[in-house]
Each structure stands twice: as C-alpha cells, then as structure tokens.
Amino acid sequence: MKVVLYGATGKSGAVILKELVDRGHTVVAAARKPENVDKLPNVTAVQDDLTDLATTTSIIQGADAVVSALGPPPENTDALLAPSALLVSAIEQAGGPRLIVVGGAGSLFVAPGVTLHESGYLPAPYLPISATHVQLLESIKKSSIDWTYFSPAGFFEPGERTGKFRLGKDDLIADATGTSRISFEDYAIALVDELEKPRHHKARFTIGY
Question: From the record, what ranges are coiled-coil (predicted)?
C-alpha cells in the first residue's frame, strides 16, 4: 500500500512511520522540513507546508491512503485547522484517497451527552488543543471524502508496543482505575490495522487499555 503521511517528524507521526515501514508499506513522508524525516527503507521524504492546493494534490495523487498526524504549535492550536482543510480539499481534487486523522480525545463521551472537553476533567493547558480537535472533527464530518478520525485515549504518550488494547467508537476507554491511556506504539498498530482492513468509513473510533 502507498501511504502519504503528514506529520511524520512529530512524536506520534514518527512511530506511525516506523509501523508502516515495518509492515511493508511504501510511504511518502510530507513535512515542512523533510530532512528531519527518519531515514527508513521505502520512505520518500518530500517538502509540503500545506499552503498550496496544487502542491498537496500532486503529492497525494495515486496514493491508497493519507494519514494526518499533524500537530499545531502549543501557542496557537487553531493553526491545525487551515492545513487540515487544505488537505481535505487536495484529497477531493486527487480523486479521493482515504484519510485517517490522528485525532484528539476531547470529543469522546465520558457520560451520556457529556464529552471529555465539556466535563471539567481536562487540565486548563489541554483545553486549547482539545477545542481545536472538536472543531476539526466537525469540519471533517461535513466533507465528501472517505475519512476516519482516530481518537487516542486521554493520555497519549511514548510507551511499549504490546499489541494488547481495546477499541471503541465514541466513548472514552478507561481501565479499572479510571485511567485512560494508550502508547504511541500500540496506537500505531491499530491505525495501520485500520488501513489494511478498513472498518470505520466516515466514522470515528478510539483506543485505550
């Protein structure tokens, strides 16, 4: 499978890149600074800052899927929205390769009708990126492309590749102690699983231990 990966130099993106390569996929890693992309077999690094529709369309033309692991600067989380919108437009222009977005946990439900973002549980520093991802999900839902929004657990961090996790739809997954957590490594397994055997077309799903 040929996959175009945006955000390949980021924390989760670099792990997703390795998982794709380890499972035999060909990857085009698009980044603002392609020289920072990990040097791995079957990876071509290209420059794209997601500001020119024609450039992005040409990069994803002929791909089987696009993965967006984009992360905005902490001081301006809404900077994620415009590049994501351009990526959706480019996918439309390119004839519709599938898009999987590395999402956020804020829009997951923690009680009937109450999202994590609305619950008051999130520490203040996490509220801006949570709000941005709520907007991003709503925007993608309105698009015509074949999209999948993959929400991680509440704590999304480096860890082990265990291959043991639970998947869900719209409710936050937590363990018996109430902790909601997933490693980048196990998240990457589930994301590539979804690429190889699609189950969530025009839908969101989530993961946790």
Answer: none
